[in-house]
Amino acid sequence: MSVLSPSRTTTETGRATGSPAGHRDRRASRRGGLLLAAPFALLLATTVLVPVGYALYLSLFTDRLTGLGFGGPEQVFVWLDNYGDVLTDGAFLDGVGHVALFALVHIPMMLGGALVLALLLDSAVTKLSGLWTLTVFLPYAVPGVIAGLVWAYLYSPTIGPVADLLPFDPLGSNGVLASIANMATWQWCGYNMIIFLTALRSVPRDILEAARVDGAGQLRTALRIKVPVIRPTLFVALIFTVIGSLQLFTEPLVLHNFTGSVTTNWTPSLYVYDSAFVNNEYGRAAAASIVLALVSALLSALVMRLSTRRSAR
Q1: DSSP per residue over 200-244, as a string?
Q2: HSE of 17 in the Cβ direction (CA atoms, 13 Å)?
Q3: What is the pLDDT of residue 164?
Q4: Whole-angstrom distance, CA of residue 137 vs CA of residue 255
Q5: What's the whole-model pTM score?
Q6: Torsion of CA 81, 86, 91, 95, to 10 degrees
Q7: I need a labelling partner for 248 at 20 to 30 A (CA). Which of 17, 67, 79, 294 fits?
Q8: Is the separation of the CB atoms in 122 and 197 below 8 Å?
Q9: Model confidence pLDDT, tens digit, residues 98-114
Q10: Is the Cβ–Cβ distance between 270 and 252 less than 8 Å?
Q11: Which comes out higher in pLDDT, residue 242 or 73?
């Protein structure tokens, strides 16, 4: 039979009945949590919430000349007119179509290539796996503008060797989409390969040993065990790749200076850039950026929902 001391009994009873000491403890714990979350909340507000709110504000206004125009443009509230102009603008819709085609080519090629390379390196089929990993990852370390310039010169029909090896003009209207997809795949394949390889290294070795004892070969082990285990990682990479594809900007911006096949509105991001910094239509640019952000959020939510359903099966 145990006997509780008076002090312990009083303390537990006070906490159970909601004494002032218990309330003070809960307030102190709450203040500690808020203090720990304050840096993240401040960073989120200054880098995400405030810019998004300012973009929403700008999207509701436009600059118009009043009178004879001698007083300069004035900011006029137009409600949702900018959104209507963007959604009915043929240049913006063409850019969305280009990005959709780019995603259909780039996403399977890049993620598929990264997965195959990661599986080969993880299965130790290749010798000097560390050297191969570094070699494939190196293009990601090259800045996008520099990589775009290098590929632009390689694609050039006058000085580049690539144009002579292909049956089509890589900078022509029929080949520039494949050229941009190749540039993006070359740069991002190694990055995603490292992510997949890290996930593969965390697969329990006992499961692989059991599969080997049962007579499963390398290909069957990869398809039936490794890929299903790292499926959540694949879906996360897919989400980020979809978002990155919608924000395609650097590659077409660089190639715009080398070919007329890439216009200033070739992608939605170029449309936003051209509207804001060339035509000074900040309201239209803000509206287009908000539309692009909403599309990215919807596609990300769709991919997440599909991944959740697939994981639940």
Answers
A1: HHTS-HHHHHHHHHTT--HHHHIIIIIHHHTHHHHHHHHHHHHHH
A2: 7
A3: 84
A4: 23
A5: 0.83
A6: 180
A7: 79
A8: yes
A9: 999 999 999 999 999 99
A10: yes
A11: 242
Report the alpha-carbon distance of residue 313 to residue 304 in Å, rounded.
15
Structural tokens at position 158 = 């006058």
Please check the confidence at residue 182 and state whether its pLDDT lies above 70: yes
Structure tokens at 241: 């790749």
Contact between 177 and 262 under an 8 Å Cβ cutoff? The reply is: no
**237: amino acid identity, one letter:** A
* pLDDT band at residue 18 under the 50/70/90 scheme: low
Alpha-helix runs per DSSP H in the chain: 6-16, 20-44, 50-59, 81-87, 90-122, 129-141, 144-155, 162-165, 176-201, 205-213, 218-221, 227-229, 231-246, 250-255, 268-277, 282-312
Burial bucket for residue 286 (CB in 10 Å: 0-12, 13-18, 19+): buried
- Angle at CA of residue 106, ends 226 and 241, nearest 5°: 65
Distance CA 31, CA 37 (A): 10
For 108, 199, 254, 262, the CA distances from 113, given in Å and listed in that order, are: 8, 16, 25, 26
Name the helix (H) or strand (E) containing 262: none
What contacts 24+ positions apart, CB below 8 Å, involve 63-69? 63/280, 63/281, 63/282, 63/283
Match 């499963």 to its residue by tokens. Answer: 216
Handedness of CA 10, 15, 18, 20 (dihedral sign): positive
